Amino acid sequence: MPSEPFDGRIVVVGASLAGLRAAETLRDKGFTGPLTVVGEEPHPPYDRPPLSKQVLLGRVPAHATTLPRRRPVDARWLLGVHAAGIDPTGRRVLLADGGQLPFDRLLIATGTRARPWPNREEARLTGVVTLRTGDDAAELGRLLDAGPRRVLVIGAGFTGSEIASACRERGLAVTVAERGPAPLVGALGGTLGAFAARLQRAHGVDLRCGVTVTALTGSGGRLTGAELSDGTAIEADVAVVALGAVRNTEWLAGAGLAAGPKGVACDAGCRAFDMYGIVTDDYFVAGDVARFPHPLFEYQMLSLEHWGNAVAQAEVAAHNMVSPGPLRRPHLTVPAFWSSQFGLNIKSVGVPTFSDQVVIAQGSVEEGRLVAVYGYRGRVTAAVGVNRAKSLEHYQRMVETAAPFPPGPGASDAPEAAVPVPSDVPDPKVLSHGPTVALTGHLPDRRLTLLRPGG
């Protein structure tokens, strides 16, 4: 006999992209029970990628990136409310204002926040900012509108590089400080990292690699500059801290889930693991805060800060929350993301950091239009297109089918005898920013108490 439809109470913690799409999908799937969405920010769900692109260029107001609703969602929206914890026995979400939300099933979609500058006194200097929220973008936009003499960007990952690009397009002087050997190297490896370094310098960026910012200096409460690990100093009126993201899991301490600094571990169906590795049926996770196994990448736990992953995973999580076991489905989408910077469109499919070799399969570094294909142990694991986004559909199929690496002939402009080279994916510890993809097989992040049968 068919199972009765689920009609219990569902709470979604996180009112950004994943939370919104999950709520819409729950209603699409016929869920008619009580639905509550909790969001820490007071704003309705909005799109974050434009914040480091169109918003910083002044083309779109900071708070005009509200996400379109795909359908009406009959839900109770609690915005500007912080979730402080979970009572696992009473099955309640505890709110910072003292409120409590009982639930039968819970979706954790709390995402990430910007990693702050570690020195709190320096971080309070006027002119020192991060970029993660719409409010952050509005503040940074005001600082750039004031025409600073120089902007310092700390970290040359995708966010830092996009900010540097926007500054140069505005005609502002910009210095980028990166602990690693090149921009984007933590996401794309050495070959495209070297390409990105040449690109930034060609656009007038004062790029400093292999250095760290040891101190931010100020006068009268305002930023005046920075000291670098190589003994040099620079003057700057604005410093953007682009040191990667912190996953929002602290509120789950004591909840008994496999949650830690690397995220919340779940199975391929988005069901959260408890701290002993037992999958739960009533706790689900989606978006940037999730860590999940993927068969294309040796079932390692994957954490992704990608727009498309948040949407796809939220839809799978919502489907599985209200579906009986035989009808549940896995989240097996191939990771994909894109970036626009310095006049180029960069798009990636797969996981470039899960590689040992890379080959330029189409175009060339010299012409600035190319497709780099990544391989691991003789199979294709990723591809990155620079101003060649249309070519990536072919390579995505190669990733999905674990096609042999290096790829065979088929690209009409592929150079003859293209030879794979080491992909030079660095240890994340040598970077000053977090990668957009993290692969690890280790969870949870703390020592466990072992359960032993009674004697």
CATH level-four homologous superfamily name of the largest domain: FAD/NAD(P)-binding domain
**C-alpha termini separation:** 42 Å
Structural Rg? 23 Å
DSSP strand content = 25-35%
> Could you say what the CATH architecture of the largest domain is?
3-Layer(bba) Sandwich
General form: globular
Tell me the name of the CATH class of the largest domain: Alpha Beta
Helix content: 10-25%
Strand order of the largest sheet: 3-2-1-7-21-20
Parts with pLDDT < 50 across at least 5 consecutive residues: 442-452
Mean pLDDT: 92
From the helix content, strand content and strand pairing, which structural class follows? alpha/beta
What's the β-strand tally?
A: 30
Whole-number tally of structural domains? 3
Biggest sheet architecture: 6 strands, mixed
Domain FAD/NAD(P)-binding: 9-314
GO cellular component, one term: cytoplasm
GO molecular function, one term: oxidoreductase activity, acting on NAD(P)H
Cofactor: FAD
